[in-house]
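Record format v2
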Amino acid sequence: MVRAVLAGDVEQFAVLVRRYRDRYARYAAHMLGSADAAEDAVQDALIRAFDQLRQCREPDRFAGWFFLILRNRCFAERRRGSREARPLEEAQQVATSLDGPDGAVERTERRRALQRALLALTPEQREVFVLKHVEGLPYEEIAQRTGATVASLKMRMHRAYDRLRGELEEHR
Amino acid sequence: MTREFHPLVKRLLDGELTLGDLPLELRPEGEEALRLLAALDSTPVTLSPLLDARVMATVRRRAGSPATARESFRAGRAWRWISAPRDVEIRLRVRPWAVGALAAAAVLAALVLGRPSAPPARGAIAAFGPTRPSALVRFVLYAPGAHRVAIAGTFNQWNSDATLLAPAGATGVWTTTVTLAPGQHQYAFVVDGERWVPDPAAPAVDDGFGRRNSVVAIAAPGGRAL
């Protein structure tokens, strides 16, 4: 598909869009704090992927390459966000948009509190937490995707655990 | 003050231990930690069905615009970037054998930069082939108090773990030397794995996502670092 687009068949890019648009949406939503922000990020990343498609050295591994583009977009957004003092409503928006049909108030509150706490982590800490505990990836695969070592990922994760505990206690 | 989880509880959260593996006195803390994870929502997020149409509309528009116009715009921008006068600090350490190449590069650069104001022919910058020697570029950051400094850029796929800087004693100065091919490279320093810092001694460009990336240009074999 990538090769077809590179050969000039632009419409084939629609197949890539359909295939990958939702794959990392949950990752982006947790990284950015809202489904709306995730949608913007995925859209930007797809357009950037098209613009830079010639730089995709291994067309058969488009997914991993696209993930890195989206990841950069999420990190840049969060760095900008951390300077602009993120509004709390965003955390609540994610909790709402991710709420299941059970709607138990206490469960919803816990989710919101955790989502708020997640936004207090650094992007690197949040990423490893989301990839492991939301996406269910083992450290080895996270290392493969992000280029970090397993040891440094564990260090980030363990700092994230402590910080989450502190954030949740602070707002209890 | 933040209470830290016990290391064994962290291993429980990592899935390496079960609650039953913990000593009795740690089980309440382990249960608290597991409650934290249980609050996570892993419901899939589905994006708007209109996203496909929006992306494809942009893609078609970009594909429809004459590629040559876009490329010449890029070439023109690159030309302006190279030819515009600016104060720069040249920080380059080369092997002795590269001195000859450096002299040749200086002559070539003088010829190129001395041309009239018309933009160069397409691909003038990329004309330096991959078979030309690479330059050794030394990156320096003053970061007193930092525990770890890395450099991430286009030359290492923005991997913030791939290229670490070494501290020069306790001076707060961190350095590393990277082999770079001719061309333009964007980068940033990553302090303590978390803080992305542009190089204060280098020009910077917008990365398109609101952040500033530093730029180093290797203009010729053995070349010149801007």
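The first strand of chain B starts at residue 135 and ends at 142.
Residues 67-83 of chain B form the longest helix (17 residues).
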